[in-house]
């Protein structure tokens, strides 16, 4: 793990490198010794009390974690999930799915619109869960069940380690709900937990390589007028998060789209100076994931023929994707849903490097604050 004596020019870069430690501590709370911590999750079971519907209310990066969790919870735990912008929930909560549990996600636990969503849910008698990076925050105290991340204090405004630890908690929560709802056997849950527990060890050794690689390719992207980030399934959420990181850190226009939607309008923007950032990771053990991967590869072929500049995030050893991309960053192999935790990190580093090139103080981007305490 990272040496305490390591020095970094910016807090954002330090916090990117702190992610293996933050993930290890968070995973150890929720899935120690290769097993889910049932006592930690017991308040969740009591709060949800057999409900099969869940609304997730969050903003910014936390909402992107919620979008990834929607796929996890629906596919593995069999819940019906609706992800709301926290700022909209208060105004349309009577029109969302009926009688749900409500999960709020917030780094600070004090975000104004997310806290308002929590209080609206409680006023309607709905059970509430909170995932925050502060176990003493208002949300953590007011929710029926609190599931804190153990990321440690995050000083830079762009969320990095708080985001990946949110994904770890959400995946652990998914496994717990899948188990108590009879969707997974104990051996299956433990197999997933083992994969989850490997993430810190997979991530730590590749960080310096990614940083060097991105520093080398970033100058070629400096003059880009816009970026389109593309992903399928849970990776669409990571595409959105990558685009947000670039916008808030480097002040560059970027949008995240489902890969299959590119030809339904956004393709008009694609050109050599409007790069595509394509998440093309693969999991050969998952037929559905491989089908999505094949669709992404075909899209890359079409876009390459069209003259697009492509930066791909691919699984280690994937020569086909590497051959189709102008730039390719490889991430360690893991199961499809857990790849979200790994593949977002190079996108964080890309945003960081592009910001540095543009002379921006990445820790304090203009017009932004760490916690939005007023709507």
Compile the SSE list and pairings.
Elements: H1 11-17, H2 19-30, H3 38-48, E1 53-58, H4 60-77, E2 80-85, H5 86-92, E3 101-106, H6 112-123, E4 128-132, H7 138-142, E5 145-146, H8 161-180, H9 186-197, H10 199-203, H11 207-221, E6 227-231, H12 234-250, E7 254-258, E8 276-280, H13 287-305, E9 310-315, H14 319-324, E10 327-331, H15 339-357
Parallel strand pairs: 1-2, 1-3, 3-4, 4-5, 6-7, 6-8, 8-9, 9-10
Helix pairs in contact: 2-8, 4-8, 4-12, 5-6, 8-9, 8-15, 11-15, 12-15
TL;DR?
By secondary structure, the protein is of the alpha/beta class. It is built from 15 helices and 10 strands. The protein has helices spanning 11-17, 19-30, 38-48, 60-77, 86-92, 112-123, 138-142, 161-180, 186-197, 199-203, 207-221, 234-250, 287-305, 319-324, 339-357, and strands at residues 53-58, 80-85, 101-106, 128-132, 145-146, 227-231, 254-258, 276-280, 310-315, 327-331.
Q: What are the salient characteristics of this protein?
A:
single chain, 375 residues, alpha/beta, Rossmann fold, 5-stranded parallel sheet, 15 helices, 10 strands, 49% helix, globular
Strand content: 5-15%
Tell me the CATH superfamily of the largest domain: Glucose-6-phosphate isomerase like protein, domain 1
CATH top level label of the largest domain: Alpha Beta
- What is the global morphology? globular
Strand order across the biggest sheet? 2-1-3-4-5
> What is the overall pLDDT average?
93
Q: Radius of gyration in whole Å, from Cα?
A: 20 Å
Helix share bin: 40-55%
Order of helices and strands: HHHEHEHEHEHEHHHHEHEEHEHEH
Q: Which stretches are low in confidence, meaning pLDDT under 50 for 5 or more residues running?
A: none
User: What is the fold-level CATH name, i.e. the topology of the largest domain?
Assistant: Rossmann fold
SS class = alpha/beta
Number of strands: 10
Report the CATH architecture of the largest domain: 3-Layer(aba) Sandwich
Terminal Cα separation, in Å?
39 Å
Q: How is the biggest beta sheet arranged?
A: 5 strands, parallel
* Number of domain modules: 2
Q: Count of helices?
A: 15
């Amino acid at each position: 793990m990272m040496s305490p004596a390591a020095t970094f020019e910016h807090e954002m870069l330090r916090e990117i490198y702190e992610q293996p430690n933050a993930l290890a501590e968070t995973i150890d709370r929720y899935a120690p010794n290769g097993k889910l911590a049932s006592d930690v999750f017991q308040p969740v079971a009591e709060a949800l009390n057999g409900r099969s519907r869940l609304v997730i209310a969050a903003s910014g990066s936390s909402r992107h974690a919620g979008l990834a969790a929607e796929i996890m919870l629906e596919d593995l735990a069999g819940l019906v999930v609706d992800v709301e912008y926290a700022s909209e929930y208060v105004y349309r909560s009577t029109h969302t799915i009926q009688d749900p549990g409500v999960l709020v996600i917030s780094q600070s636990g004090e975000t104004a619109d997310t806290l308002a969503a929590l209080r609206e849910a409680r006023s309607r008698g709905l059970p509430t869960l909170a995932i925050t990076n502060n176990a003493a925050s208002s949300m953590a105290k007011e929710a029926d069940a609190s599931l804190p991340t153990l990321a440690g204090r995050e000083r830079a405004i762009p969320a990095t380690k708080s985001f990946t630890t949110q994904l770890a908690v959400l995946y652990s929560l998914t496994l717990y709900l899948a188990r108590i709802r009879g969707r997974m056997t104990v051996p299956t849950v433990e197999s997933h937990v083992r994969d989850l527990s490997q993430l810190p060890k997979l991530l730590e050794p590749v960080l310096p390589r990614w940083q060097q690689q991105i520093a080398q390719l970033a100058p070629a992207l400096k003059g880009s007028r816009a970026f389109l980030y593309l992903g399928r399934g849970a990776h669409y959420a990571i595409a959105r998060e990558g685009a947000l990181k670039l916008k808030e850190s480097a002040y560059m226009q970027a949008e995240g789209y489902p890969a299959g939607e590119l030809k339904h309008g956004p393709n008009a923007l694609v050109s050599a100076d409007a790069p595509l950032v394509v998440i093309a990771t693969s999991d050969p053990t998952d037929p559905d994931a491989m089908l999505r991967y094949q669709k992404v590869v075909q899209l890359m072929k079409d876009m390459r023929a069209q003259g697009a500049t492509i930066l791909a995030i691919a699984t280690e050893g994937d020569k086909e994707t590497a051959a189709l991309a102008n730039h390719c960053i490889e991430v360690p192999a893991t199961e499809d849903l857990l790849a979200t935790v790994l593949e977002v990190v190079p996108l964080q580093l890309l945003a960081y490097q592009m910001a540095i090139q543009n002379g921006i103080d990445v820790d304090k981007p203009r017009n932004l604050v760490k916690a939005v305490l007023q709507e």
